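PROTEIN DATA CARD
Card holder: Polyketide cyclase / dehydrase and lipid transport
Chain length: 129
Origin: Rhodococcus sovatensis
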Amino acid sequence: MSSIQVADQTFIAVPGSAVAEALSHPDRWRVWWPDLRLSVTDDRAEKGIRWAVDGALTGTMEVWLEPVSVVDGVILHYFLHTEPAGANPVDLVVENRQRRAAGKVMAFELKRGLEAGRAAGERPPHARP
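Structure generated from the sequence above:
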């Protein structure tokens, strides 16, 4: 079992391919997780991406994109399973909270950027007749 475990989900009203494209840029990873070194272990395209994690934490991280055709978008599932690196004692409660917040920052940045210009409750542009 990992000391740091985060599981979260966010709905984004765009196709999985658009989220996958936005998620595929390593420069963004360094902004979202500046103290982590990520190595892609499985690029699943419109289904998401899996990484090996090194740096401040050691373990795995994944974004899984689950299509939701009835509402024309995807659920972005975020998973982080890691251990703190190094010999310094870590407050695991604080660390878990910070890592959950970092996951939400990533998800909502993607959501805001990809849904820009769409009013709440309005069908996504890709789903309009």
